[in-house]
Task: structure prediction
Amino acid sequence: MNKTVLISGGGQGIGRATALKFAQEGYAVSICDTSKEAGLEVIRHIRDVGGDGMFMCVDIADEEAVKRWLRLTVQDLGRVDVLVNNAGISKNGSMLDLSIEDFDRVIAVNLRGTYLCSREAARIMKSIGGGSIINIASTRALMSEADTEAYSASKGGILALTHAMAVSLGSSGIRVNAISPGWIETADWQFSARATVPKHSEEDRLQHPAGRVGIPYDIADMCVYLASEQAGFITGQNFVIDGGMTKKMIYV
Ligand SMILES: NC(=O)c1ccc[n+]([C@@H]2O[C@H](COP(=O)([O-])OP(=O)(O)OC[C@H]3O[C@@H](n4cnc5c(N)ncnc54)[C@H](O)[C@@H]3O)[C@@H](O)[C@H]2O)c1
Result:
């Protein structure tokens, strides 16, 4: 039986590339997303190249919906080996004006959603002897622009959740790691009706020591590695993938 990966927010952006990458590696892929069109399109791509996959329309902040996603994945694909907690939203704005409802929604999707999916996946992984959970955080967990309190707090929470879960779940054979992406261009990885061709200036490229803006496969490749047996001694860690952007000093 193929190994199975679950990817939240797998319909577009980094999640879409991650779904396609795992499918290329021979995994059966279960994705959830709030966008039905995007999710179904990804599953069509996977099936067109001979892969196995399923999609469910799920808001990861909704406990019952998450439980249903996990239950139906086991029913359809047989097991849960890897979970990529990728779905995320931001609502930026001055903290003097941002509504508390907007703040709560960002925390509910990004942090509570990551916890809910991890809890439900861990219950199944424990019963089959282990697994790998990969949380998509952000370099904004570590540094900030102005007016990003809700998003930054949610991503900082994900880093803390990562080491806490790694310690709690280690004895069940479950490894938990985080990836903190920097600037990853996803304009061309949206649902086909919404996708656009990205344009970057020379300045955009030069602020990255690697000489370019990131692409979704930069993150997807790391997810596949962290899920693999080669990463068996890695847990509780955060991997910054940002082309070196956060290591570059800026004098203004
Ligand atoms: N792109 C970047 O530069 C960047 C940088 C750092 C971190 N990240 C993180 O990477 C992850 C993916 O980002 P992206 O840029 O690919 O985003 P994206 O907006 O392109 O894709 C996110 C997907 O998640 C889905 N989604 C949103 N809310 C959801 C919910 N409540 N339940 C289920 N699905 C939901 C969306 O419909 C969408 O398909 C996010 O967690 C984001 O915070 C992205």
User: Anything to note?
Assistant: The CA atoms of residues 187 and 198 lie 6 Å apart. The beta strands are 4-8, 28-33, 53-57, 82-85, 131-136, 174-181, 238-241. Residues 8-9, 11-15, 32-35, 38, 58-61, 86-89, 109, 113, 136, 138, 181, 183-184, 186 surround nicotinamide-adenine-dinucleotide (CB under 6 Å).
